[in-house]
Protein backbone atom coordinates (compact mmCIF):
# COMPACT_ATOMS: atom_id res chain seq x y z
CA UNK A 1 0.00 0.00 0.00
CA UNK A 2 2.74 2.45 0.97
CA UNK A 3 4.60 1.76 -2.28
CA UNK A 4 1.50 2.57 -4.34
CA UNK A 5 1.04 5.89 -2.55
CA UNK A 6 4.72 6.69 -3.09
CA UNK A 7 4.48 5.85 -6.80
CA UNK A 8 1.29 7.89 -7.21
CA UNK A 9 2.81 10.85 -5.39
CA UNK A 10 5.98 10.64 -7.48
CA UNK A 11 3.95 10.63 -10.70
CA UNK A 12 1.74 13.49 -9.50
CA UNK A 13 4.73 15.68 -8.62
CA UNK A 14 6.42 15.01 -11.96
CA UNK A 15 3.17 15.64 -13.84
CA UNK A 16 2.72 18.96 -12.04
CA UNK A 17 6.32 19.90 -12.82
CA UNK A 18 5.94 19.00 -16.51
CA UNK A 19 2.68 20.95 -16.70
CA UNK A 20 4.23 24.02 -15.04
CA UNK A 21 7.21 23.92 -17.41
CA UNK A 22 4.89 23.52 -20.40
CA UNK A 23 2.69 26.45 -19.37
CA UNK A 24 5.68 28.71 -18.68
CA UNK A 25 7.29 27.73 -21.96
CA UNK A 26 4.08 28.62 -23.80
CA UNK A 27 4.37 32.17 -22.49
CA UNK A 28 7.71 32.71 -24.23
CA UNK A 29 7.37 32.73 -28.02
CA UNK A 30 10.36 31.03 -29.63
CA UNK A 31 9.19 32.31 -33.01
CA UNK A 32 11.04 35.55 -32.28
CA UNK A 33 14.33 33.68 -32.83
CA UNK A 34 13.20 31.02 -35.30
CA UNK A 35 10.20 31.98 -37.48
CA UNK A 36 8.36 28.64 -37.37
CA UNK A 37 4.80 28.90 -36.05
CA UNK A 38 4.17 26.88 -32.91
CA UNK A 39 7.85 26.06 -32.33
CA UNK A 40 8.80 25.37 -28.71
CA UNK A 41 11.94 24.10 -27.04
CA UNK A 42 10.03 21.21 -25.52
CA UNK A 43 11.43 21.65 -22.03
CA UNK A 44 8.57 19.63 -20.54
CA UNK A 45 10.20 16.66 -22.25
CA UNK A 46 12.92 16.96 -19.61
CA UNK A 47 10.43 15.44 -17.21
CA UNK A 48 9.59 12.70 -19.72
CA UNK A 49 13.22 11.71 -20.24
CA UNK A 50 13.87 11.91 -16.48
CA UNK A 51 10.88 9.63 -15.86
CA UNK A 52 12.00 7.22 -18.58
CA UNK A 53 15.42 6.96 -16.92
CA UNK A 54 14.22 6.71 -13.33
CA UNK A 55 10.71 5.23 -13.36
CA UNK A 56 8.87 2.44 -15.12
CA UNK A 57 7.70 2.90 -18.71
CA UNK A 58 4.07 2.79 -17.51
CA UNK A 59 4.59 5.55 -14.97
CA UNK A 60 6.50 7.63 -17.51
CA UNK A 61 3.73 7.21 -20.09
CA UNK A 62 1.05 8.14 -17.53
CA UNK A 63 2.95 11.33 -16.72
CA UNK A 64 3.15 12.23 -20.41
CA UNK A 65 -0.54 11.60 -21.09
CA UNK A 66 -1.61 13.49 -17.96
CA UNK A 67 0.58 16.46 -18.94
CA UNK A 68 -0.91 16.57 -22.43
CA UNK A 69 -4.49 16.33 -21.16
CA UNK A 70 -4.02 18.86 -18.37
CA UNK A 71 -2.06 21.18 -20.66
CA UNK A 72 -4.96 21.26 -23.12
CA UNK A 73 -7.41 21.95 -20.30
CA UNK A 74 -5.29 24.63 -18.61
CA UNK A 75 -4.41 26.26 -21.92
CA UNK A 76 -8.05 26.23 -22.99
CA UNK A 77 -7.12 24.70 -26.32
CA UNK A 78 -8.61 21.24 -26.58
CA UNK A 79 -8.08 21.25 -30.34
CA UNK A 80 -4.31 21.25 -29.70
CA UNK A 81 -4.66 17.99 -27.75
CA UNK A 82 -4.49 15.88 -30.91
CA UNK A 83 -1.18 17.47 -31.89
CA UNK A 84 0.31 17.39 -28.41
CA UNK A 85 -0.72 13.82 -27.68
CA UNK A 86 0.28 12.41 -31.06
CA UNK A 87 3.67 14.14 -30.94
CA UNK A 88 4.18 13.21 -27.30
CA UNK A 89 3.35 9.54 -27.78
CA UNK A 90 5.59 9.23 -30.84
CA UNK A 91 8.44 10.99 -29.00
CA UNK A 92 7.91 8.76 -25.96
CA UNK A 93 8.09 5.61 -28.05
CA UNK A 94 11.21 6.78 -29.90
CA UNK A 95 13.01 7.78 -26.71
CA UNK A 96 12.00 4.60 -24.87
CA UNK A 97 13.29 2.42 -27.71
CA UNK A 98 16.49 4.41 -28.18
CA UNK A 99 17.33 4.38 -24.46
CA UNK A 100 17.84 0.64 -24.84
CA UNK A 101 20.44 1.00 -27.58
CA UNK A 102 24.02 0.74 -26.34
CA UNK A 103 26.25 3.67 -27.12
CA UNK A 104 23.51 6.26 -27.72
CA UNK A 105 23.65 9.14 -25.27
CA UNK A 106 20.77 11.06 -23.75
CA UNK A 107 21.77 13.86 -26.09
CA UNK A 108 21.00 11.73 -29.15
CA UNK A 109 17.88 10.27 -27.56
CA UNK A 110 16.47 13.75 -26.96
CA UNK A 111 17.22 14.91 -30.51
CA UNK A 112 15.44 11.83 -31.85
CA UNK A 113 12.56 12.49 -29.45
CA UNK A 114 12.21 16.06 -30.70
CA UNK A 115 12.22 14.86 -34.31
CA UNK A 116 9.63 12.18 -33.50
CA UNK A 117 7.47 14.75 -31.72
CA UNK A 118 7.47 17.07 -34.72
CA UNK A 119 6.76 14.14 -37.04
CA UNK A 120 3.81 13.14 -34.84
CA UNK A 121 2.42 16.65 -34.95
CA UNK A 122 2.61 16.69 -38.75
CA UNK A 123 0.86 13.31 -38.89
CA UNK A 124 -1.87 14.67 -36.60
CA UNK A 125 -2.22 17.77 -38.79
CA UNK A 126 -2.55 15.59 -41.89
CA UNK A 127 -5.30 13.58 -40.19
CA UNK A 128 -7.15 16.62 -38.82
CA UNK A 129 -6.93 18.60 -42.06
CA UNK A 130 -7.43 15.57 -44.27
CA UNK A 131 -4.63 16.71 -46.54
CA UNK A 132 -0.99 15.72 -46.97
CA UNK A 133 -0.01 19.28 -47.95
CA UNK A 134 1.23 20.09 -44.41
CA UNK A 135 4.10 17.65 -44.89
CA UNK A 136 6.02 20.52 -46.53
CA UNK A 137 6.34 21.96 -43.02
CA UNK A 138 8.17 18.84 -41.79
CA UNK A 139 11.72 19.53 -43.13
CA UNK A 140 12.10 22.90 -41.34
CA UNK A 141 10.60 21.36 -38.20
CA UNK A 142 13.05 18.46 -38.34
CA UNK A 143 15.92 20.90 -38.73
CA UNK A 144 14.65 22.89 -35.75
CA UNK A 145 14.28 19.66 -33.77
CA UNK A 146 18.05 19.17 -33.94
CA UNK A 147 18.46 22.48 -32.09
CA UNK A 148 15.56 22.02 -29.65
CA UNK A 149 16.48 18.39 -28.99
CA UNK A 150 20.09 19.39 -28.37
CA UNK A 151 19.00 21.95 -25.77
CA UNK A 152 16.77 19.40 -24.07
CA UNK A 153 19.46 16.72 -24.38
CA UNK A 154 22.12 18.88 -22.79
CA UNK A 155 19.82 19.78 -19.92
CA UNK A 156 18.71 16.17 -19.48
CA UNK A 157 22.29 14.97 -19.10
CA UNK A 158 22.72 17.37 -16.21
CA UNK A 159 19.34 16.53 -14.73
CA UNK A 160 19.32 12.74 -15.00
CA UNK A 161 22.95 12.13 -14.14
CA UNK A 162 23.45 14.68 -11.37
CA UNK A 163 20.14 15.20 -9.59
CA UNK A 164 19.61 12.73 -6.77
CA UNK A 165 16.18 11.13 -6.78
CA UNK A 166 14.77 10.49 -3.33
CA UNK A 167 12.05 8.33 -4.83
CA UNK A 168 14.44 5.56 -5.84
CA UNK A 169 14.37 2.43 -3.75
UniProtKB/TrEMBL annotation:
InterPro entries membership: Hpre_diP_synt_I, Hpre_diP_synth_I
Keywords: Membrane, Transmembrane, Transmembrane helix
Domain of life: Bacteria
Pfam families cross-referenced by the UniProt entry: Hpre_diP_synt_I
Transmembrane region(s): 144-160
Protein name: Gx transporter family protein
Organism listed in the record: Candidatus Intestinimonas pullistercoris
